[in-house]
Amino acid sequence: MSPTAAPGVAVEGFLPPSVADGADGRDFGIYLHVPFCRVRCGYCDFNTYTSDELGEGASRSDYAATAVREIELAAHALSDAGVPRREVRTVFVGGGTPTLLAPGELASMLTAVESTWGLAPDVEVTTEANPDSVDADDLVALAEAGFTRVSFGMQSAVPEVLATLDRTHDPERVPQVVRWAREAGLSVSLDLIYGAPGETLEQWQRSVEAVVALEPDHVSAYALVVEDGTKMAAQVRRGELPMPDPDDEADKYELAAALLARAGYDWYEISNFARTPADRCRHNIAYWRSADWWGIGPGAHSHVGGQRWWNVKHPRPYAAQLAAGRLPVAGREMLSAEDREVERILLGVRLAEGLDVGPELADQLSALAGDGLIERGPAVEGRAVLTLRGRLLADAVVRRLT
């Protein structure tokens, strides 16, 4: 089915009864989007806003209460569709900079999730944070509220690269916040971006080595993509910055993979590395395995039983819809069986465990193995497991399997 417009929907009848089929066997997670930033980074195209971009009706101080209202309506919609009450296995608070909200406000949203659905005994609760958006007391408060994990947007250890990305923190702050998080009992993930305009291979190596020295539990390393509509895209268009070079980004990925592997980090998804299986981000794994999740907040996306929808983007109409007792939905679509299979391949092939494919794709698997893109042994058994070269060319692998 193609996407349909849904400018705010009543709770009753929003989800078709089919989403309840097999729900007991699917994990359920919650994403909480906090759309506020102090400064908009030049490369970022996420749905975020600085205080100067928001007018009346979109107050940061009211945001937590507004999000709690969506949580309440979400529970009604799931119940109305016959979806059984399931404990939440993962909660991920992203943004934006979630920690621009006070720890008590973040805690109030988590409390609402817990009181509405319950939290699994081994629940993973993550918040993103900038290194300069938290202090030791904040991290202790988050841990006491039930957060188990913090993901710091480090991006680089090199001041010049951070400046190109419009990041505001001092790289010397990162070891400090990592130490504070550990002392609070939180698991730590560090996010890196490679391929920033002007970044040398030596600078990238410094960043990876700085991460390894801090011994986080988890590392994410993403290639910079210059998105249309961003400040960086305009800078590239005007010739002020060079476009990232795919060959350079491939070299940097290979370097990071080698350095992280040497330090004991295993890749479990193309851009994600963990010290142990227990340190993997279970929330993101749920996305890649097409589990159920409800996205709370402006522009947040959700998926339950093949039904996908997304909220209105701006915080002001988002809040207005909720105040009127309506889910703030901008559009939705029901995935067909064919859509689901394409998505299963698109997402599943990125995982280190690989992907089982049908016997009808045996010739494609054999050809991919011959090209060095997937491991030959698993391919014989009908499984696609990416090689290092395959990780660099994952999109090509997906095209040949779909």
From TrEMBL:
Entry's Gene Ontology cellular component terms: cytoplasm
Annotated GO biological process: porphyrin-containing compound biosynthetic process
InterPro entries: Aldolase_TIM (IPR013785), Coproporphyrinogen-III_oxidase (IPR034505), Elp3/MiaA/NifB-like_rSAM (IPR006638), HemW-like (IPR004559), rSAM (IPR007197), rSAM_sf (IPR058240)
Stretches assigned to the Radical SAM core domain: 22-266
Localization, UniProt: Cytoplasm
Function: Probably acts as a heme chaperone, transferring heme to an unknown acceptor. Binds one molecule of heme per monomer, possibly covalently. Binds 1 [4Fe-4S] cluster. The cluster is coordinated with 3 cysteines and an exchangeable S-adenosyl-L-methionine.
Protein name (record): Heme chaperone HemW
Source organism of the structure: Ruania alba
Lineage: Bacteria, Bacillati, Actinomycetota, Actinomycetes, Micrococcales
